[in-house]
Design brief:
The chain is an alpha/beta fold. About 35% of the residues lie in helices and about 20% in strands. The strands form 3 sheets. A 7-stranded mixed sheet has the order 4-10-9-8-7-5-6, with helices on both faces. It has a 4-stranded mixed sheet with strand order 1-2-3-13. A 4-stranded antiparallel sheet has the order 11-12-15-14, with helices on one face.
């Protein structure tokens, strides 16, 4: 069916009309339990009542203000964000998308180090454009094989401006590098004067059972990028820097401006997201529900070892990887018909539900996968 939307990617021939909490409804009256949190952003669930109230209040005050004034809400959000990021004395700037924020972080790293190359772990995603664009022509983007400690010595870190570390998503495959690999690589990075950028766009705000997935490691990033969950679906992202990087701004002039940088509506939403996660105890809840979900997936693997190759999980970021003969697209399609929205990549089914998902909904999904297998 032809639509007036440019077809950059495949879409379902369904029209969405409403979404609430963990449920999505289409124009035909079908209901779906969303195990993807939209595009991995609605950590508090769709159309969260607290966020709706904050939006309604804020739009009566101001939505957009330009770049001339200070904004108390922006400063309050930065303070709250830096506290949960464990970056005392740091600073933040607020943008729109994760890709934009990652690219600004890399731009800062290149500016301050006077180097041009960027390192990432293979299969990890940096951004949809710019410095991290996936292209055979992007000779300044280097890849290191995941968990290959011996490969670390093969890189000349004196040429590398930044190591951009995505601690979990890996292009939708849900892969978690080992602590030994990440921490050994971080030591080499720091010794060479490289900056360590943690890309928490998809892994932040309780997704992995901690505020941020990089907190599962002992590393100390210089720059942390957040997005998606920060706005619970509203487009706001952030670049947060340590106090050490902040000092560099005093020594070296750097200017960056765009139309919706530090917009007030986003601040109000971001503050409400952080407060809601804190007040509802969703970090602990994500850890507990994630463990429940992980055990259920492991039970499926034990029941169907000839079909399920591996399960991977950290908090409410989980995946099943199937053996090659299994038709994963058929499983995905049957789940969709059954009312479940999941992710799919190669031979992997992905689950990143809102943190408010119930164990009952998890059980429904597991039973459906069991029946299909």
């Amino acid at each position: 069916m032809t639509t007036p939307i440019i077809p950059f990617y495949k879409r379902l021939d369904k029209v969405i009309v409403k979404a609430k909490d963990c449920l999505i409804y289409d124009s035909e009256g079908n209901q779906y339990i969303d195990f993807e949190s939209g595009d991995w952003a609605a950590n508090l669930g769709h159309s969260n009542d607290r966020i709706i109230k904050v939006i309604q209040d804020q739009i009566e005050l101001i939505i957009h203000d330009g770049l001339q004034f200070r904004n108390k809400e922006a400063e309050d959000l930065s303070v709250a964000l830096l506290e949960i990021l464990r970056m005392p004395g740091g600073q933040s700037v607020f943008l729109n998308s994760g890709s934009e924020a990652v690219n600004l972080g890399i731009t800062l790293a290149k500016f301050f180090t006077k180097r041009n190359k960027v390192l990432k772990i293979d299969q990890s995603f940096i951004s949809a454009y710019g410095h991290g664009q996936i292209s055979v022509d992007n000779e300044r983007l280097l890849n290191i094989p995941i968990d290959k400690i011996d490969a670390i010595s093969q890189y000349d870190f004196q040429q590398i401006a930044a190591f951009v570390f995505e601690p979990g998503n890996s292009k939708g495959l849900i892969q978690f590098p080992t602590a030994e690999f990440v921490e050994t690589l971080a030591i080499a990075i720091k010794k060479s004067g490289c900056l360590l950028i943690a890309n928490e766009v998809t892994t932040g705000f309780g997704r992995t059972g901690k505020w941020f997935a990089s907190q599962h490691y002992t590393i100390k990033p210089d720059i942390i990028i957040t997005g998606k969950g920060l706005g619970n679906g509203y487009p706001i992202s952030a670049v947060s820097i340590t106090d050490r990087i902040s000092i560099m701004f005093e020594q070296d002039n750097f200017r960056y401006a765009q139309s919706h940088q530090n917009d007030p509506l986003g601040f109000a939403i971001g503050l409400a997201v952080i407060k809601t996660i804190q007040e509802l105890g969703l970090i602990k809840s994500s850890l507990e529900k994630g463990e429940y979900f992980r055990e259920a997936l492991n039970n499926l693997q034990s029941k169907y070892p000839e079909k399920i190759k591996e399960t991977r999980a950290r908090g409410l970021m989980l995946a099943i990887e199937f053996h090659a003969p299994v038709d994963v697209e058929e499983i995905y399609d049957q789940l969709l018909v059954g009312g479940f929205i999941t992710g799919i990549k190669n031979k992997t089914l992905r689950f990143m539900p809102p943190l408010v998902i119930t164990k009952t909904d998890i059980d429904k999904l597991i039973n459906s996968i069991d029946n299909i297998l």
